[in-house]
Amino acid sequence: MLNIPHSPIPRAEASTLLAFVLGIEPKELLTAVPPSPDQERRYQSLLVRRAAGEPLQYLTGKAYFRTVAVEVGPGVFIPRPETEVMTGWAVEWLGSSPGTVVELCVGSGAVSLAVATELPGLRQYAVEIDPVAFSWAERNLAQTQVLLRLGDMATSFPELDQQADLVIANPPYVPEDELGLVGKDVLEHEPALAVFSGPDGLDAVQTVIAVAARLLRPAGALCFEHAESNAAAAAELVRASGAFTQVQTHPDLTRRPRFTTAVRGPVL
Ligand SMILES: C[S@@+](CC[C@H](N)C(=O)[O-])C[C@H]1O[C@@H](n2cnc3c(N)ncnc32)[C@H](O)[C@@H]1O
After folding, report:
1. For residue 25, what are the contacts with CB-CB under 8 A and spacing of at least 6?
2. In this predicted model, what pLDDT tens digit does every residue of 76-85 receive, in sequence order?
3. Same domain for 45 and 79?
4. Same domain, yes or no: 129 and 234
5. Is this prediction's pTM over 0.90?
6. Domain identity same for 24 and 146
7. What residue ranges line ligand 1, CB within 6 angstroms?
8. How far is residue 119 from each of residues 97, 106, 139, 164, measured CA to CA in Å?
9. Tens digit of pLDDT for each residue in 102-130?
10. Is 114 among the domain residues?
C-alpha cells in the first residue's frame, strides 16, 4: 500500500486526492507506484485547498450519485446522498408506472442521469434557472435523451400541462434564517441560489408544489426534498394546495424527515 502520510484532512479524502493525482481509483492505491515529484506537488497543493474548505468534489471534478458519476465544479451544487434516497423512491414508482418525468431544479443533472440510466426509455424533461449550473447539466446529460431547458421552473414546460407522470425536485430549501447552521465549505463555495430559498426555506418548495399541480396528470406523483425543520410545513403546503392526496413524509439515510411525496388528485 502506498504510504499516505499524516495530512490535515480525513484519510479517506487524502486517498481520493492522491488517487486523483495518480489517475487511478482509490482502491488501486494498494499496488500503486509512488508519485513523481510533480504529482507530489499537485497532491500537496490539493491537500492545502481541501484543508482551506474547497469541496472535495470540486477538486476532483467528479461526484458519485447512485449508479452514476457526474462532472461538477464551481457554480454547481454537489449532489448529496439524501437525494439518492428520494431518487430511489421515484425509480421504484416509475418502475410500475413509466412515462413522462419532469425534474425541476436540475443542477448538475445527477438525478435525471440516474433515472435515465436505471430506467431507460422514459420521456424526460428538466429545467434549471442558473446558466452556469445549466452548462454542467448540459455536459452531464449530453449522452441522454433528457430534454433540458434553461429557465424558471415556475413557467416551465406549459406544453406538458396535466401530462407528466412524475415530477421530482430537489429545490433550494435552506431557510435564510438558518444561515448560521450552514457549513463554511457550502457557504463559501456552493451557489447560494442552489441552497437558500427565502427566510423560512419554503419559497421554492411552494413553486414546486404549484408547478407539479399544473404538470401532473391525475394519479401522477410528486416527490420533493425539503429542510428537516420544514417536514410538517411542506406536507401542510401540499395538502393546502387542494391538488394532492396521499401526502407522505419520508426519512433520509439518517432517518431525518427529508422528502415528501404525494399523488395528484382529479383535475376539476
Ligand atoms: C439544491 S440544487 C439541486 C440540484 C440537483 N437537482 C441535485 O439534487 O443535486 C437546486 C437547483 O435549483 C436551481 N434553481 C433555483 N431556483 C430555480 C428556479 N426558480 N427554476 C429552476 N431552477 C432553479 C438552482 O440553480 C440549483 O441548481
Report:
1. 19
2. 999 999 999 9
3. no
4. yes
5. yes
6. no
7. 77, 79, 83, 105-108, 110-111, 127-130, 133, 152-154, 170-172, 193-194, 204
8. 11, 18, 20, 16
9. 999 999 999 999 999 999 999 999 999 99
10. yes
Residue (of 123, 89, 130) closest to 106 by Cα position: 130
3-state class (DSSP) for residue 225: strand
Residue 104 counted as domain residue: yes
Tell me phi and psi for residue 90, to 5 degrees.
-65, -40
Q: How confident is the model at residue 186 (pLDDT cuts 50, 70, 90)?
A: very high
The parent domain of residue 45 ranges over 11-52
> Ligand 1 mean position to 185 CA, how many Å?
18
Domain containing residue 240: CATH number: 3.40.50.150
186 and 86 fall within a common domain: yes
In a domain, residue 60? The reply is no
Q: Which atom of ligand 1 lies nearest, measured to the CA of 127? A: 21
Look at residue 26 and tell me whether its pLDDT is greater than 90.
Answer: no
CA-CA-CA-CA torsion for 66, 72, 76, 78, nearest 10 degrees? 40
Pick the more confident residue, 27 or 111.
Answer: 111
Residue 144 neighbours by CB under 8 Å, 6+ apart? 112, 113, 116, 124
Q: Which is nearest to 26 in space by CA: 48, 51, 1, 9? A: 1
